[in-house]
Design a protein that fits this description.
By secondary structure, this protein is of the alpha/beta class. The protein is built from 15 helices and 7 strands. It binds NADPH dihydro-nicotinamide-adenine-dinucleotide phosphate and 1,3-dihydroxyacetonephosphate (13P). Keywords: Cytoplasm, Lipid biosynthesis, Lipid metabolism, NAD, NADP, Nucleotide-binding, Oxidoreductase, Phospholipid biosynthesis, Phospholipid metabolism.
Length: 316
Amino acid sequence: MKIAIVGAGAWGSTLAELARENGHQVDLWSRRGSAELSTVVERAEIILSAIAMKGVRSVMTQLKGCDLASEVILVTATKGLDPDSGNDVDLPMLPSQVWRTGFASGAVGKPHPAIAILSGPNLSKEIRRGLPAASVVASETLETAERVQAAFSSHRFRVYTNLDPVGVELGGALKNVIAIAVGTCDGLRLGDNAKAALITRGLAEMIRIGTYWGANAATLYGLSGLGDLLATCNSPLSRNYQVGYGLAQNKSLSQVLEALEGTAEGINTAKVLIKLAQQQNISVPISYQVYRLLEGEITPQAAVEELMQRHSKPEV
Ligand SMILES: NC(=O)C1=CN([C@@H]2O[C@H](COP(=O)(O)OP(=O)(O)OC[C@H]3O[C@@H](n4cnc5c(N)ncnc54)[C@H](OP(=O)(O)O)[C@@H]3O)[C@@H](O)[C@H]2O)C=CC1
Ligand SMILES: O=C(CO)COP(=O)(O)O
């Protein structure tokens, strides 16, 4: 199979390695490289985007102008929310929707790719070390999801299919905000009870937002929800966790970002999520404190106090 991977960051490079090991012809594109995007994607049966959220729109605009194979599948592996959409009436766009609407407004007669989402507990550094991992590929049709599953599955990367693309994509995006909260909790040395409470109540927030968005709650209890929460909230490899940990050391956000290797999507996601939650009156107290912490409106210690002093309520 010919596979094009756009985005040669940590995740794109790791997925390229997995696909090459499976015997596919893999071309990797980076905006900094010498290869033309149009050449890299020509005749590709799968185009996988591992672009950070902030670059998705610009790469989509470039890709729209390229000649694509008629049966191509576009797989998005970005874990974020689009900051340039969403208002009182419309939800913000998920990365897959940025791709879909971009292609829908493309030139007449050009093929519209089938779209799939790849998401799960997949810390790229572990996968690069050859350690086993599992992930989920979601699409509106089983046929599309199964084609991507077959392309990436291997003895060390187990890929499940799922027919709830919204749930799978949201699980990967929303957990990053909770990972920042848990990194802060660990940085403050608040203990394992506090950490368990944050992960569990964070999942409740993800389910509240997810079901409002039309996701299936069961999806969020799966790999791209609870699974990814467990990986990122328990690993210093997670950039989002590192952001929270750094803020708990009284570093400023810009100091933390200067030292950070790669992208921490939870910073943008927290902003987009809080705007939506406030517009629609959805309760997300942990994510709200993360947002305030990132905005410099509150100290980590005060955020903990605010969460502990909320009015009493039933668990479910
Ligand atoms: N690393 C991981 O473990 C995992 C990451 N992800 C998700 O994958 C996405 C990428 O993460 P990761 O690879 O780790 O991040 P990196 O920071 O390592 O790479 C980011 C990628 O996005 C590209 N990019 C950023 N801005 C733009 C832009 N304006 N135009 C074009 N390209 C741009 C970068 O290109 P350039 O190199 O030229 O700057 C690079 O290829 C994120 O959404 C992340 O949440 C998902 C699962 C696992
Ligand atoms: O999404 C990831 C693992 O599943 C990567 O997490 P970070 O982006 O926080 O490093």
